[in-house]
Amino acid sequence: MLPKTLFFENKIHIPPELTSAYATILQTLGLLQDAHNRSPENSTIIGGSDKEATLNHFTYRFPASASRIEYLFLNPKSEFGEVSKELQRWLSFGNVWLLDLPCGTGAASLSLLSTIAELRKTRTLPPIPLTITLLAADISPDALEIYKNFFEKIEGPLRAQNIEVKLQLENWDFIKPEQTARLIDIWFQEARPSAEYIVLISAMSGPLKGNIRTTDRWFNHLLERLHNRSALVTWIEPGTRQANNIMTALKKFFLGISWFSPSKEDHGQAEYYYFHPIKKSECRGQICLRFWSKS
């Protein structure tokens, strides 16, 4: 049974430690009142390289983004059986190398880690030692700064549940192939080829504008570098038309990648509800994903 701190009355609840950190950072940035309000009308809030785009996404979209990976990991309605089980198995103990692209302010990876910590705290999962080497990269320096502040606030609670995270933040522009090559070099430093690697890609449909061709170069390079390593690749998006176009194109894209074998359940889509921690209200969430595994 899932703890009420994460799933209650048929709604996802953002992990308490992450909720507290989110409210604190909003207050520090002078954005707490804005987060109580509806997002500006006629605005497309997808984040970006400039400060305004970063703060708008953090203020109005962070809970929605954080709830997506949590819903996938918890899988409360058994909609993502194979994907959820694999993520839970790989992130249960030992040493894992995690790559978060684009990391933004931390909604995906920090929500994932906070969810695992809460499951351990409530004795839903055993607190077996888990060490994660986490490389988080984004084009926005402001997003990376918020990510850093977030991590500093939840690092203690993670350690209390036997989760040790070695974090490195890097600036990354997916349009520039040399930056992707450098990023993977950094990620592989000190890592054994026999280690386990998880790639977490989220909310790329906005920057890609629904066109998978703009992602060919960096994504291909990433997969090529994983050719001799045990890896999971999870790509998560909101349930928008652009996101669905990306998911459809990715299926065709992977037909030419012979060294990756899709899992039995390599895609999915769902709607769910989550509790907004600032507005104290119920909100509707959407998720679509593709998932690939390689032993």
Number of H/I helices: 10
Helix content: 40-55%
Q: What percent strand?
A: 25-35%
Annotated CATH architecture:
3-Layer(aba) Sandwich
Q: Looking across the biggest beta sheet, what order are the strands in? A: 1-2-8-9-7-6-3-4-5
Task: Count every beta strand, where a strand is a DSSP E run of 2 or more residues.
Answer: 9
Q: How many domains would you count in the coordinates?
A: 1
Overall geometric form: globular
Q: Mean pLDDT score, rounded?
A: 89
Work out the radius of gyration. 18 Å
Top CATH class: Alpha Beta
Give the SSE string.
EEHHHHEHEHEHEHHEHEE
Separation, N- and C-terminal Cα atoms = 30 Å
Structural class: alpha/beta
Task: Give the biggest beta sheet.
Answer: 9 strands, mixed
CATH topology: Rossmann fold
Unreliable segments of 5+ consecutive residues: none
What does this structure look like?
The protein is α/β, with parallel strands linked by helices and 295 residues long. The protein has a single domain (7-37, 46-171, 178-294), classed as 3-Layer(aba) Sandwich (Rossmann fold), CATH 3.40.50. It is 42% helix and 26% strand. It is built from ten helices and nine strands. The protein has helices at residues 16-29, 32-36, 51-74, 81-90, 109-121, 141-160, 177-188, 205-208, 216-225, 241-253, and strands at residues 7-8, 11-13, 94-101, 130-138, 163-171, 196-202, 230-237, 261-276, 281-294. A nine-stranded mixed β-sheet has the order 1-2-8-9-7-6-3-4-5, with helices on both faces. Helix 6 links the parallel strand 4 (130-138) and strand 5 (163-171). Helix 3 packs across helix 5, helix 5 runs parallel beside helix 6 and helix 7 (177-188) packs parallel to helix 9. It is globular and about 45 Å long. The chain starts with 6 loop residues before the first strand and ends with a strand. The mean pLDDT is 89.
